[in-house]
Amino acid sequence: MSTNIVFIGLGNMGLPMAQNLARAGHAVTGFDLMPASVRQFVAGGGLSSEDLAAAIAAADVVITMLPASRHVQGAYLGTPLGEAGILAQAKKGALLIDCSTIAPEVAREVAAAALDKGLRMIDAPVSGGTAGAAGGTLTFMVGGAAEDLAGARPLLEQMGKNIFHAGPSGSGQTVKICNNMLLGILMIGTSEAIRLGVANGLDPKVVSDVMAKSSGRNWALEVYNPCPGVFDNVPAARDYTGGFGVDLMLKDLGLAVESAGASGASVPLGQLARQLYDVHSKSGAGGLDFSSIYRLQHPAV
Ligand code: NAD
Question: Does residue 300 sit within a domain?
């Protein structure tokens, strides 16, 4: 069944996700602040609209894939300058799916405001990287009502492989933050281990192959290797362009540390990982893929 969808945020993740929905036969109107991204979406068979408010008013489903909490708040609730947000424009009963990684309390705030307006909303952040977005193999971590997830599931299945219901509104974001804190720590550890082997004269491919069959194996090593020359189709093979930005990882580690502070959880490695990514970002690497932490040789911490 074809659904009328508006997809907002056509970046590294949103563009391939929206393309998968368009390819599956849905009428997908894409929007991004960067006109070049919208042009790319239209060139690949997507739709665009001069009148975004009208497209949202006509949509059965609105999906957002935006950088951080403030972008999601602005998009749904509107701006202080009086620009109307999605909640003021969507038709009654429309289903809203936010796939961005944001603070759980912001996800709850926006979902509660949606409910007040007779709209349905789930938080559905993803894991799997840009390759997972392009291949339609993402993992979705969903927070919200079970019946709203049931309504969203056919669409999520066209963008991903594993769909988990984590709990009520905001829970998808909480589990996503746990995952990304672990990922940030693993990427640093993997980089350090490969660098140690290389400093001792070993071939990084050999070090990686051995660890991938040993107890140090993990996703950063086996799927997203940070050392240039080990894999072909990863950001490390293209000067760390594309992929998942250092500043987005820094944002997620910030969310993890804040959440730990609020809940009393102890996350010393999460805190250290945040410091290391902060040093890396301040050295000018904020726009590079997060696996470029491999280049951080002498951190000032
Ligand atoms: P990105 O920076 O590549 O894309 C974000 C897009 O949103 C940009 O094109 C930007 O122009 C657009 N945008 C910002 N504000 C907007 C607005 N008000 N209206 C319309 N468009 C707007 O980021 P990304 O890598 O695609 O990540 C998006 C989200 O997904 C982030 O929350 C990130 O943490 C999360 N995420 C990313 C990855 C990854 O591998 N890149 C993996 C999992 C989750």
Answer: no
Assign residue 258 the CATH number of its domain.
1.10.1040.10
Q: In this predicted model, what pLDDT tens digit does every residue of 208-225 receive, in sequence order?
A: 999 999 999 999 999 999
Q: Is the CB of 78 under 6 A from ligand 1?
A: no
C-beta of 124 in contact with ligand 1 (< 6 A) = no
Among protein residues, the one with the nearest Cα to ligand 1's atom 30 is: 100
Question: pLDDT for 74-122, tens place per residue?
Answer: 999 998 777 889 999 999 999 999 999 999 999 999 999 999 999 999 9
Boundary (domain end) residue, out of 139, 169, 199: 169
92 is catalytic: no
Q: What is the pLDDT of residue 298?
A: 60
- State residue 114 phi and psi, 5-degree precision: -65, -45
Does the Cβ of 66 fall within 6 Å of ligand 1? yes
Position 301 in a domain: no
Which structural domain range is residue 102 located in? 4-169
